[in-house]
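stage 2 :: seqdesign
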């Protein structure tokens, strides 16, 4: 599965978790430059987008969400913590539903 992670500067631990969950190719946009992210098209081979919401503004999130919906790409919205990304990814794809996120106290 091709995954695009949007937000944050360093995502090495998140890449490791996504790889364990089956992601083969992980691309990363830091979103530090808002104009570049908003003008850059989402790559055609992406099957899942992980938005790290702690590092994105509302306009960027809205643009990515609408593009994902239009192209029917799975969308995972999570805080930057590894446990939250894991929990939300599992929820979207129906994996390991009993895991509880330590950062946001959600199942």
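stage 2 :: out
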């Amino acid at each position: 599965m091709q995954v695009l992670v949007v937000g944050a500067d360093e995502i090495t631990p998140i890449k490791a978790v996504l790889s364990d969950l089956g992601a083969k190719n992980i691309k990363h946009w830091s979103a530090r430059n808002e104009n570049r992210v908003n003008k850059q098209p989402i790559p055609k081979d992406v099957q899942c987008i992980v938005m790290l919401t702690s590092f994105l503004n509302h306009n960027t999130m809205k643009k990515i969400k609408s593009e994902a919906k239009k192209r029917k790409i799975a969308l995972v919205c999570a805080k930057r913590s590894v446990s939250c990304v894991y929990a939300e990814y599992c929820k979207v794809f129906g994996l390991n539903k009993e895991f509880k996120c330590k950062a946001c106290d959600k199942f």
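stage 3 :: structure notes
- The first helix runs from residue 12 to 20.
- The chain has a mean pLDDT of 86.
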